[in-house]
Write a structure and sequence with these properties.
single chain, two-stranded antiparallel sheet, mainly alpha, globular
Length: 351
């Protein structure tokens, strides 16, 4: 680690990489959670750790809001063009690749209509819904910048916290009340459920230096808050789902997500000295995180297929192989792709 000027804030770099690694862990763990005997210690440990890692999508949304509002001015033509090339088109490419893979494996039959639906709703693989969410926020970028710079941060955070809290567990009931007799699908990818995290990121971006100071000044309180909420959230994971009402589980998890994001943001401040320490080993990985996010589930599917052919049936052995292949395969593939893109860009610039 070195101290030098870097265009990208190093605390954000660290969080971006951390969140990406946790997403891979969550998806590697799904077989343990769905298939292992619930009485085993390994099951409880993986289930709890997976639930405690379940703040990363919220964290990604918050970081996206931070980065949008760190810029004093936004040229919307360039902004939307960059989102198209760097967010939407890679998403379309990888959804299509996943779909063709599933068709090749005989899991699905090809249909242009079905592919369009998967692209629209992000429900072909577990990670894709985040892209549908973030695109909704990006589309409304001028609205956020218009409103959020004119309204008190306290009011913004309180109002959006209430909206997200209500929508996280009661959105289906609200839809049934407003539209009785109609079945409303895909409410899980409606941006209102995650509005608080985006708004918090936007507010942080507008007051970044003050936020950094507050994190370092209140590190002890944030640590205690995180440990308390983690304890209760882990307790929820350890209990059978029928022992607590769904709305209460959702609210406990939401409180945990907020405290976890603040806690790890605080750690990032301390580890990077407020973003001033340049994390050179992470810079390439940081640039590859979106590609890793998109591709890692396909690597997991391929690893599962390989283990099936090799007749590897022990769940913990499969878990170890899956994690190794998912992390190594996804990271190496995407780092190689980043290197190819950078090399091609340099050659094009010279010509």
């Amino acid at each position: 680690m070195t101290r030098e000027k870097s265009k990208r804030k190093q605390d954000i770099v660290l969080l971006n990489v951390l969140f990406c690694m946790l997403v891979i862990f969550i998806h590697c763990s799904s077989e343990i959670i769905t298939q292992m005997d619930h009485g085993r210690t390994a099951y409880q440990a993986v289930r709890i750790l997976s639930r405690l890692s379940g703040f990363v999508v919220q964290g990604f949304l918050l970081l996206s809001g931070v980065k949008l509002f760190l810029k004093p001015e936004v040229h919307y033509g360039r902004f939307y063009l960059s989102r198209l090339f760097y967010v939407v088109l890679p998403y379309v490419f990888w959804v299509t690749v996943y779909y063709l893979y599933f068709c090749y494996r005989g899991i699905m039959g090809f249909s242009w209509y079905d592919l369009g639906q998967y692209l629209l709703w992000g429900n072909l693989s577990a990670q894709f819904y985040f892209v549908v969410l973030i695109v909704q926020f990006y589309i409304l970028a001028p609205l956020w910048r218009l409103i959020y710079r004119r309204v008190s941060p306290t009011v913004l955070l309180l109002v959006t916290l209430m909206i997200s809290g209500i929508c996280s567990s009661g959105l289906t009931d609200i839809a049934k009340l407003l539209l009785p007799g109609r079945e409303i699908a895909h409410l899980d990818v409606l941006f209102l459920r995650y509005l608080f995290y985006w708004t918090a990121g936007c507010v942080i971006g507008m007051h970044y230096q003050e936020f950094q100071r507050a994190l370092r000044q209140h590190w002890l309180g944030l640590t205690i808050l995180y440990l308390l909420t983690a304890f209760f959230n882990a307790g929820v994971a350890a209990l059978a789902s029928s022992e607590l009402p769904a709305w209460l589980m959702d609210q406990i998890h939401m409180l945990y997500c907020i405290s976890a994001i603040l806690f790890f943001y605080m750690l990032a401040q301390l580890l990077t000295d407020g973003g001033r320490i340049t994390l050179k080993p992470l810079s390439a990985l940081d640039r590859a995180t979106y590609d890793i996010y998109l591709v890692h589930c396909l690597v997991i599917f391929i690893a599962n297929e390989w283990m099936y052919r090799m007749k590897i049936t022990d769940l913990m052995t499969r878990y170890a192989y899956r994690a190794l292949i998912a992390y190594a395969g996804s990271i190496l593939l995407c780092l190689l792709w980043q290197a190819v893109k950078r090399r091609t860009g340099r050659l094009m610039a010279k010509s």
